[in-house]
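Good day; I would like, with your permission, to put a structural problem before you. I would ask you to consider whether the tokens describe a fold that such a sequence might reasonably adopt. The full record is reproduced below for your convenience:
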Amino acid sequence: YTLGDRALEREMLELFCTQSAVYLERLSQAHTDREWKEAAYSLKGSAQAIGAWRAAEAARQAEALGGGVLVQLRALHLRGVESAVREAELYIRKLLKDR
């Protein structure tokens, strides 16, 4: 997406780190299936845009939940999404530090 533009790469990666915190907060505060799905969908797209595939997959799985299944598995999936996002953020911070 960046055609080798290092400044743009940095900007996109930093934006992911900032936005992922917003989406995780929205997931944790979601009161309806729709709020949950919208937050998961947004996080999935952000993760895909930078190649954070584990985070994207965790968000995709969370997005697929609804109804009683969401109530039962919400905490488990939220932890999984948080873990995958944190892993991506740690990698990004290391990558940016090394540049």
User: Anything to note?
Assistant: The chain is about 85% helix and 0% strand.
